[in-house]
Amino acid sequence: MIKFLKHYFHGDYPFFKKRFLCILFHFFSGALLAFLIPSVKFLRFLIEHISPSFYRGFTDEGAGIGFGMRAHFFKKRGTSFETSITSLTSRSIYQYYVGLGWWLHYRYRYNVRKYDEWISQLHFKYALILFDGVGFKVGLFTFYHNKNSLAVLEHFTVPQQRVCYQGFGRSLWFQSNFNWQMAQTELDRLGKDHPFRNDILSGLGLAVSYSKFDDLSLGSTILSTLSSEDKSSFAQGLAFGLEARKKQNPELWENTIGTLPIGLKDQVNGLIQIVHQVEEELDLYCTDRNYYLLWIDKIRNTLEGDNRI
Predict the structure, then answer these.
(1) Which terminus, N or C, of the chain has the lesser number of Cβ atoms within 10 Å?
(2) Ranges under pLDDT 50 in the chain
(3) pTM score, two decimals?
(4) Angle subtended by helix axes 262-283 and 291-303, to nearest 10
């Protein structure tokens, strides 16, 4: 814990410190509330009144931990988890699975068979997202002081590793104190030929658009500096972060997007349009448990050479 505090709360980064502290508070509040309060109606009331609209998604992500802990007392754990999250709200569906990944990593570490028992009972479209939580947790708590810590992810299958590295990419944004130059330096240190570079870029893009939703020009500025090889993956991550924000709180979305300059607004809406377009196409035929990765890759392919990025 001392290492954690020294790394994330040292130096002259007042904005990051304040925002990260708020994120942690609401995240772990969500975990505690979801575990302790059996009444969904009362839980929803508390979350809505404790969490400001900007941080509510982080509270719901933490709730995924609490629901995962509660589901552990049932025979069909994955089914119990699904019942809990759909009864609270479907608007934070992505965040719940990320939180579940935190809990499963705490409980099972790298026992792939145990993860598979859950996955078989989870919604096929979203099940892989739990590995984003695994990768984020590993990155947030270990990578900054142990650069070899990512080797443990090799216990998982390649599709699972890909989503883990997306989560790691999200953590890299936090490890870098919301400083793109620091994040890019660490990304380049991992190597241009890193097998999961595109997924790390996706995670960075997702984290930038979600954590800095009140400054969407930042993601657009970063995007304009990237090489053609990196652009589509980062933009796909931006798009997913925007989609999570829009789905979680339509009112906050409208209020935020309405204030953007026309060019940035068109870019943001264009990214969202591609996310929905690809999802609608996949929904016509796909029931594969690798749906999430197919969604990611099809968006990247669509974005390559697109003038909106």
Answers:
(1) N
(2) none
(3) 0.97
(4) 140
